[in-house]
């Protein structure tokens, strides 16, 4: 009972923290992390002990899966080269550079342990970086690169951590072995993710009950990660590939009701999971600080040096990765040369999060290390501190930096024009289908459907007009919403007076709610 109460309290606090963050205009992970740290000093707050399996199996897979579901696969493929340069090349470089720096700072610590720390802090987070990127209006290609990097770099980092931990246990590994293992596990993960995604798609295609669709979707990331772990492949790559495939196929697999319901379910799961995990990071920081055996001066010095080197390596990598590739004629002909502000903002968008947390918790006890002791508590603290520092410093200053450098993109007019053109074609196809099947239908019904098609087409073009004036579609939405409110009131009075049952009220309210949800487009 006590654990249930603690879980409810944590979820409630994370919800309140997220609401507070939205009201202030801050990113929720930052507010929850700082709030968790403050709460850890409140008397009576229980100590938190996160298990690595909980994060790796219970929290990370659904977060990655829902992020992959929402990623544009076409844009992802077009940006695959810069994504892989960051997700693989930069992570491996950061791991070894941090390893060399840490070994120089702490010569008695095994080099493998230092590389493990480098891999732990190397991958940026999928949640915080893209949340900020979308909010501040970064160009879509930049958002796609950040999304793709944060989806794939986890695999590189976690495989590198595992190989480094194996070396700590006495296994002999080198650079090429690490690279080969990363490639092998990632390749098997890709194949496994595709196979399991095709299986999930087969189930979705044959399911007609939205609740069963939701259940299959919720189970998919956990089934994928469990099977991938059993086969010793990259579970992160498998989950991401499955999410990318199914996200691209969802319009063909699910009914309208299933899509609406599944979207709401995943939004709730994502909201709760990411809120709780950043709150737990903050709550655990106090215990980490108290358990460090290394002196405070060394702890602060090591933490700041790791942070500075980590940021510097990302900047050093970003500019050559952006511009040297364009010396190749094929790439230069197909990709415009971006202004220097673009790689600068991408380099600064390196906030760490869930993967760094999970990987740090997998570090073995010092007693299991062969060939020398290492300060595990210090390493775990450094990893947690990097999460805090990157969220605080980079997360809070990234919007100002992007504004200062003029890296933003207003696609509202372009999107409205593209939507209007496609909607015009869709309306024409709808009218042709209507005429082909209208035989025998009442004329009033056919006329009503023609008017509905014209209204949808006109509404798309209206969004290109003067935003200061109320369009006909907006007026319709405003007035129809008032009418729906009056209808709801009548049904509720009838239920209260016993003239209709609760079932009748619920059925009527559902129809009115669905209609009102469609009216929100009139206000955009």
From TrEMBL:
> Which compartments is it annotated to reside in?
Cell membrane
The protein's topology relative to the membrane is: Multi-pass membrane protein
Keywords per UniProt: Antiport, Cell membrane, Ion transport, Membrane, Sodium, Sodium transport, Transmembrane, Transmembrane helix, Transport
Is-annotated flag, keyword Membrane? yes
- Span-the-membrane segments of this chain are 24-42, 54-76, 83-104, 110-134, 182-204, 234-252, 264-285, 297-319, 340-363, 378-398
Residues of the Cation/H+ exchanger transmembrane domain? 12-401
* Chief location of this protein within or outside the cell: membrane
Q: Which InterPro entries match?
A: Cation/H_exchanger_CPA1, Cation/H_exchanger_CPA1_bac, Cation/H_exchanger_TM
The record's function comment reads: Na(+)/H(+) antiporter that extrudes sodium in exchange for external protons.
Annotated family: Belongs to the monovalent cation:proton antiporter 1 (CPA1) transporter (TC 2.A.36) family.
Q: This chain belongs to which protein, by name?
A: Na+/H+ antiporter
């Amino acid at each position: 009972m006590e654990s249930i109460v603690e879980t409810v309290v944590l979820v409630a606090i994370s919800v309140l923290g997220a609401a507070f963050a939205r009201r202030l205009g801050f990113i929720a992970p930052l507010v929850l992390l700082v709030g968790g740290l403050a709460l850890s000093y409140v008397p009576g707050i229980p100590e938190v002990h996160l298990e690595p399996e909980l994060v790796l199996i219970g929290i990370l897979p659904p977060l990655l899966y829902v992020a992959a579901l929402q990623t544009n696969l076409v844009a992802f493929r077009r940006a695959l080269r810069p994504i892989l340069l960051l997700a693989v090349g930069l992570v491996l470089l950061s791991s070894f550079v941090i390893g060399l720096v840490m070994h120089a700072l702490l010569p008695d610590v095994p080099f493998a342990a230092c590389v493990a720390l480098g891999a732990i802090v190397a991958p940026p987070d999928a949640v915080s970086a893209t949340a900020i990127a979308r909010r501040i209006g970064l160009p879509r290609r930049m958002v796609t690169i950040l999304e793709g990097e944060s989806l794939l770099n986890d695999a590189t980092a976690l495989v590198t951590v595992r190989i480094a931990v194996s070396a700590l246990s006495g296994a002999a590994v080198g650079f090429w072995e690490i690279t080969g293992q990363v490639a092998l596990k990632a390749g098997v993960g890709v194949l496994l993710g595709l196979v399991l995604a095709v299986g999930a798609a087969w189930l979705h295609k044959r399911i007609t009950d939205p609740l069963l669709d939701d259940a299959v979707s919720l189970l998919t990331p956990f089934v994928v990660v469990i099977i991938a772990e059993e086969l010793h492949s990259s579970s992160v790559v498998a989950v991401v590939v499955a999410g990318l495939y199914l996200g691209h196929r969802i319009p063909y697999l699910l009914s309208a009701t299933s899509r609406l319901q599944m979207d709401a379910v995943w939004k709730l799961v994502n909201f709760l999971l990411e809120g709780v995990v950043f709150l737990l990071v903050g709550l655990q920081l106090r215990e980490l600080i108290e358990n460090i055996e290394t002196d405070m001066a060394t702890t602060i010095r090591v933490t700041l040096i790791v942070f500075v080197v980590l940021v510097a390596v990302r900047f050093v990598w970003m500019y050559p990765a952006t511009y040297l590739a364009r010396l190749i004629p094929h790439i230069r002909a197909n990709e415009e040369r971006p202004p220097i502000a673009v790689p600068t903002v991408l380099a600064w968008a390196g906030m760490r999060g869930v993967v760094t947390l999970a990987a740090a918790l997998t570090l073995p006890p010092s007693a299991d290390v062969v060939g020398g002791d290492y300060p595990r508590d210090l390493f775990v603290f450094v990893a947690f501190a990097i999460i805090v520092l990157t969220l605080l410093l980079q997360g809070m200053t990234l919007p100002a930096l992007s504004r200062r450098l003029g890296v933003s993109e207003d696609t509202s007019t372009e999107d409205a024009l593209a939507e209007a053109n496609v909607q015009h074609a869709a309306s024409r196809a709808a009218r042709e289908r209507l005429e082909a099947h209208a035989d025998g239908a009442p004329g009033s019904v056919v006329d009503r459907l023609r008017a509905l098609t014209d209204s949808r087409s006109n509404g798309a073009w209206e969004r290109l007009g003067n935003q200061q004036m109320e369009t006909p579609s907006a007026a319709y939405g405003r007035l129809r919403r008032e009418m729906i409110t009056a209808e709801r009131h009548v049904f509720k009075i009838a239920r209260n007076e016993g003239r209709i049952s609760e079932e009748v009220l619920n059925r009527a309210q559902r129809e009115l709610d669905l209609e009102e949800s469609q009216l929100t487009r009139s206000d955009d």
